[in-house]
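Quick one before lunch.
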Amino acid sequence: MQITCFGAAGEVTGSSYLVTTAHAQVLIDCGMFQGSPDDDRRNQLPRDLDLNQLDAVVLTHAHLDHSGRLPLLARHGYQGPIYATPATIDVAELLLADAARIQESDAARTTRQRQRAALAPIAPLFDETDVVAVMALLRPLPYDEPKSIAPGVTVQLVEAGHILGSASVILTVAEQGRTQVAVFSGDLGPRGAPILNDPARIDTADVVVLESTYGDRDHRPLAETIAEFAGIVTQAALNRSTILVPAFAVGRTQDILYHLAALFRAGAVPQIPIYLDSPLAIAATQLYLKYPQLADAEAHTVSRPGQLWRGLDTLHRCVTSAESRALNGADGPRMIIAGSGMCTGGRILHHLKHNLWRPEAVVLIVGYQAEGTLGRLLVEGARRVQIFGEPIAVRAQIHTLGGFSAHAGQSELLDWLAPMAPRQPHVMLTHGEEHARSALARQIAERFAITATLPLLNDRVTINRVSGRAAHPT
Ligand code: ZN
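Model of the zinc ion complex:
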């Protein structure tokens, strides 16, 4: 078996891995690169991917950095199955359709600019037709049901605890008279996060492809983070401030609403107006209600299934852009939750432009901010940023609440790996910046005496456990 790394090699976006056996080829994820000026060039199908040889695709979860290049498969003629959990299929349809609309309007705007410079028009990466075509290829595969998907290859999806429908992938590969197990973590959630179950325990693997987003650190305990969150909301109410929360439409948004609802119900913070300024997040929140069986026991005890956000009487949903624009002139106290989660586009940019320069405003960072994004600049203390080509002073307070992360911290990644470690699997670390995955590699060496591989883009790693060691990347 060989595993080729088509993305997320020393960075957090572009996840895609090709598994090649003697009899089959299976692609795990086909994600988009995000946050770098080079993305247009990189967001193509990998050169070494032959769609005629591809038997099946498996999608771990719907976030675009795992799903965003799927429409290109359909556009280039792939007609085979794409397996994902039923919830992931619903979420992917929302996110891909939204991405197509953004790509189309961005391409139209750039084309207008280029026309004025007598340059050729540009096409969007994919459009809504490609999304319809790729959605027709998705096949629901519930958690914990093994399924044969290609000659000699069986797949099983298990809970990853990251967002609604998120899965880790267990591939069992039979070739040349032996059987090997390849485990792909996908994105792993933290233990004890609200709403979703914790990541499933996996006991056996010959090779583990493990994410390392927070491979270099642990998050603050959730209880401390909630207390800090409550303090920020209370202070903002006193100061009549606007709190801006850049949030992924799927995952972070629902968690923030969940914590707010709990604080409101407990009377722990003043019930300030909350604006959910994202049609996408509004639709995604409805999907969480469609799958009450995926909610964890805690979510079931605090409120009946389907009422996860009971107590949020001050929640306003902004669907139209006119409703969004109406927020510009208004005063606090209030909280505005809008995408994109790393401030790379979307309605949050307008709110940042109108509020970053105000000393009483607050920006609450609740998710990972990749290198090169506006969110990362804010976290790193930039005093001035460019938004829509305009210089904006940063006088607002920037708070980072790491404990609300949708990703496992370092200790949780190690604990997830622990049951598989006694067999000394080959471990490949991906989906993390270099310093994060190097730090995790050191911990894995120390705790399990396993030397992890840190693959580069397009590296092909041969998994050959008969020799007891994996070959070096070619
Ligand atoms: Zn994700």
